[in-house]
Amino acid sequence: MDYYNEYRQKLRTPEEAVKLVKSGDWVDYGTNVCFPTLLDEALAKRRDELFDVKIRGNLCFGPIRTVESDPEREHFCYNSWHCSSYERKLSDRGLCNYIPMIFRNLVPYYRHFLTVNVAMMAVTPMDRHGFFNLSCAAGIARGILKEADIVILEVNEHLPRILGGFDESIHISEVDHVVEGSHPPLPEFPISQASQEDIAIANILVPFIEDGATLQLGIGSMPNVVGGILAQSDVKDLGMHTELCGDAYYELFKAGKLTNRYKTFRPGKGVTGIVFGSRELYDWVDCNPGVVIEPLEYVNAAETIARQYNMISINNCISVDLYGQVNAESSGLRHISGTGGQLDYLTGAAMAHGGKAFICMTSTFTDEKGTVSSRIVPHFNGEIVTNPRSQSYYIVTEYGAVNLTGRTTWERAELLVSIAHPDFRDGLIQEAEKQKIWRRSNKR
Questions:
Q1: CA-closest candidate to residue 416, choices 326, 290, 355
Q2: CA–CA distance, 209 with 207 (Å, rounded to integer)
Q3: Are strands 148-155 and 131-133 parallel, antiparallel or unpaired?
Q4: CA 278 to CA 283: how far, in whole Å?
Q5: Cα-Cα-Cα-Cα dihedral of 371, 376, 379, 380, to 10°?
Q6: What is the pLDDT of residues 106-118, one digit of tens each?
Q7: Cβ atoms of 261 and 267 closer than 8 Å
Q8: What is the pLDDT of residues 384-414, one digit of tens each?
């Protein structure tokens, strides 16, 4: 078959390709570094001739030209499944709406309920068999493309080709248009500098992680920092099963800690659904038989996660209340990120033989005015509950780790006060008494 001839027949300029978008359409963009920058810019140029084009994306690092070109949202209405820091700023300006979800259910939403008129995603160059690799977005890309009426691919010459078990590629025969053009280097997101609190949390976690354990490190700076510090520990022969592969896994690999040798499911393979990080990370995952990318519908399924013995899930959050409810999505009513796969891994790790799920946070935060507040609060006032109290497991601050599983409301209050910052413990006890979840016999 002459796939290159078919490729040439479907090749268009970005401006030509986006002419397929009509007013009122639902348009889906590729996630993270598979965002279609050339197509987005071309679509933005059509602003005045289009109305009510609704766009879905997630973890897009910006700029999104369609959104920036239309502050009144008359032409383009952007929505995100999980907000990056850039999308959070769009939300602050009223230019982005969050779509509640958990990652294992994202593609089924499309399959059963959602309309995709046009899907636009960045992919690797086509291979000699006519396949484009879905690269760092393969965890959700294929499922969306299958449901799209029109598929437009943007070839990004910098994307790594990541091997997969299934659904990591799309064939030229399934594509309507292909566009090409030069791109800047992929955005990079190296591990953040560890604070003293981060180091303390990591040191608390290390004794819980046995040799041969399989790790999931969630989205955000805290899990990546913890992973980086684990690379300096004595733990060995770790495995990877995660929704997001970031630089912490590459650091573990360089340190000789990540071998996947003792995984009980997919031994020898580090499994992920999304990738973004540094240039070195992109180079590491490129055509690496030791790393496979698969749909998050499968990777994040609780029954899949539970097949890993000694599965360790490490995620971060914004706040926890004395009932054990976890908020990882909002600061009050201000939207921050999203549920992502945190609840998936909290569920799956708890089901796994020897598994443990940790939700980590510093005990306090300081706002722009310099006011210090506790992340452990008496009760929520509009904050989004990411993890219900019925599924709370280990909660960790720099003051310790407590297991809330099976604990009464008064036991939870006592345990959480014990890992709160000392300056806030008396106040939390007073509030717990008002909420009738503090026993008089508890030590103050």
A1: 326
A2: 6
A3: unpaired
A4: 9
A5: 70
A6: 999 999 999 999 9
A7: yes
A8: 999 999 999 999 999 999 999 999 999 999 9
Distance CA 444, CA 437 (A): 14
Count CB neighbours of 243 within 10 A. 25
- Non-local CB neighbours of 406 within 8 Å, separated by 6+ positions: none
Question: What tokens does 268 get?
Answer: 């020898």
Residues in Cβ contact with 218 at an 8 Å cutoff, skipping those fewer than 6 apart? 243, 244, 313, 314, 315, 316, 340, 341, 342, 345
Local confidence band at 225 (pLDDT 50, 70, 90 cut-offs):
confident
> CA-to-CA distance for 241 and 304, rounded, in angstroms?
10
Other Cβ atoms within 10 Å of 84 Cβ, number: 23
Q: What does the chain come to in residues?
A: 444
Report the distance separating Cα 409 and Cα 261, nearest Å: 41
- Which helix (H) or strand (E) covers residue 283, if one does? helix 279-285
- Give this prediction's pTM: 0.95
Both tokens of 98, joined, read 């969050």
Distance (Å, rounded) from C-alpha 423 to C-alpha 126?
59
Torsion of CA 176, 33, 45, 51, to 10 degrees: 80
Place of tokens 């598929």: 151
80 forms bridges with which residues in the sheet?
A: 57, 98
- The H or E element that residue 395 is part of is strand 394-397
Which residue among 87, 197, 243, 398 is the active-site one?
A: 243
Question: Is 303 marked active-site?
Answer: no
Task: Measure the CA–CA gap between 124 and 133, rounded to whole angstroms.
Answer: 5
The alpha helices in 11-115, defined as continuous H runs, are 14-17, 37-44, 65-68, 85-92, 106-112
| Contact indicator for 356, 393 with CB cutoff of 8 Å | yes
DSSP sequence for 20-69: G--TT-EEEEPPGGG--HHHHHHHHTTGGG---EEEEESS--S--HHHHT
